[in-house]
Amino acid sequence: MKKRLLILMATLLTLVGCSAKEDTKDTNVLKKVSVVLDWTPNTNHTGLYVAKKLGYFKEQGLDVEILLPGEAGADQLVASGKAEFGVSYQEAITQARVQDVPLVSIAAVIQHNTSGFASIASKGITSPKDFEGKTYGGWGAPLEQAVLQSLMQTEHADIHKLDIVNAGDLDFFTMMQKNIDFAWIFYAWTGIEAELRGEKLNMLYLTDYSNQLDYYTPVLATNEKMINNDPETVKAFVAAAAKGYDYAIQHPNEAADILLEAVPDLDKELVHKSQEWLADKYQDDAAQWGEQKLTVWENYAKWMSSNNVLEGEFNAKQAFTNDFLPKKETK
Q1: How far is residue 298's CA from residue 211's CA, in Å, rounded to a whole number?
Q2: Residues 231, 125: Cα–Cα separation, whole Å
Q3: Which among 142, 148, 178, 177 has a CA at the least distance from the CA of 160?
């Protein structure tokens, strides 16, 4: 009897040990990767936080760490291989590619450009012609002046009559208190914040003046080495992200709560209102979330070249890919 009891105990210990090993194996099977944001967390990033919270990354075998960019910036970290994925922009990737920096866009976060030049309504800036005699606050990039000039040319306005100042890291509302008349914003965040403040804005969207300025901003990016050496991980990441953004499209309030849970310092009302505004803009008229079109990449590169902000040969087909997007089920 005693011998049989000892055998039973040994068997149970063996089974427990096997179970523990299996649990450890299940944990180890998750591949650790990181995604670097382009800025502080906001509703452009909600799909990533949803994918992490609801286990979509885990379903794909990934343990994803969401990182803030720091001084290096997402593009530099991704290009150097110090991070597997990042949030970037079409304009940045286009410029990187002509400098042989191997960044590749793997999904469009928002289908159409929702940025533009905003001003407090009392400034009376209702068209690019009204930029004359005004002060623009920006960050000092050549691209800014090219965009401003492009819009002003549509109304035969003279950019030399516009004062362009480097406002550094000042936010829009602080700029408006410092004799700056207008700035470049994303309406989904700053525009919604203005609404909540009861501040009426005049908003001149870039897409209202040129279809060449309807580019993808932001996008999810990786580097060529990752695509060539570990395509399965790229596919898994994009599949989970797509599921996260699809959830945000269908459930904006719940998605907003997930972002707020991850980043509790964010303004609750702003996050919810912004999420509602973006819900139908993530995918918009595309066949599926994340899809990118060759013509959009080619048109914007042509605009950049013609406005002297892009030097060198640009191959649009190498700058982006739809290959990792989930395959749509056919009925």
Answers
A1: 12
A2: 48
A3: 148
Give residue-wise pLDDT tens across range 170-203. 999 999 999 999 999 999 999 999 999 999 999 9
CB 128 within 8 A of CB 157: yes
Residue 254 vs residues 56, 257, 258: alpha-carbon distances, Å: 15, 5, 6
CA distance 43 to 268: 12
Instruction: Please check whether residue 125 is in contact with residue 202, taking contact to mean a CB–CB distance below 8 angstroms.
Output: yes
Close Cβ partners of 296 (under 8 Å, ≥ 6 residues apart)? 90, 214, 215, 216
Q: What are 128-151's pLDDT values in tens digits?
A: 999 999 999 999 889 999 999 999
pLDDT of residue 61: 98
In a 13 Å sphere around the CA of 109, the CA atoms on its Cβ side amount to 22
Whole-number Å distance between alpha carbons of 109 and 39: 14
AA letter at 214: D
Q: String of b and e for 25-54 (b: at least 16 CB within 10 Å)?
A: eeeeeebebbbbbbeebbbbbbbbbbbbbb
Q: Which residues contact 311 (CB under 8 A, 6 or more apart)?
A: 98
Give 300's strand partners: none
* pTM reported for the whole predicted model: 0.90
Strand order in the sheet with 182-186: 163-166, 135-138, 182-186, 115-120, 201-205
pLDDT at 2 > cutoff 90: no
Give the bridge partners for 172, in sequence order: none
Contacts of 214 (CB under 8 A, 6+ apart): 112, 113, 206, 207, 296, 299
